[in-house]
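Open question from group meeting: does this chain pack into something compact, or does most of it stay loose? Before anyone orders reagents, we agreed to write out a predicted structure and look at it together. Recording both the input and the output here so the notebook holds the full record.
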Amino acid sequence: MTKAKFNLIDVLIVAAVVLIAVIAVWFLGGRSGTGTTSETQNTTATFKIQLTKAEKSLYDKFLAGLENDESVWIGIKERFEGKLTGIELSPSTKVGTDLSSGKAVLLEDPVLYDITLEVTADVLETSSQISSSNTPIRVGEETAIRGKGFAGYGFVIDLATNAQ
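Structure tokens returned:
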């Protein structure tokens, strides 16, 4: 006499595994039409890039690019196009020691400057990031900025977007 290969307990185990798989797919986003989609919109971003300890000649080149309404390219590996809309020059500072009191003080560097560039670019804004040409733009991120005959390396210090 031979025994049956499947019994009631085997059928219940198979049914439980299938039911658990269906529930897992349903809870992990397999429901059609009810998943959340991130809202994406095309906007214009205005951000500032600060170049520190730069020579005055670099400021003059960026200023000429601003006056000639030239495009600039922002990014290290992947680049996107932007327009210079403003530029500021301020003396670069360094920490030094006041020899008479022994205290640390900020000293202005007579040769080097901090250059703050205001740039606008067309971007894609989602709920999680702002990017242009698949290059994310984040405050605090180190980036390069290049133009015709000039280039600099600095940090994004301010970022704002406006819906088109």
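Observations to bring back to the group:
The helical segments are 8-30, 56-67.
The two ends are 81 Å apart (CA to CA).
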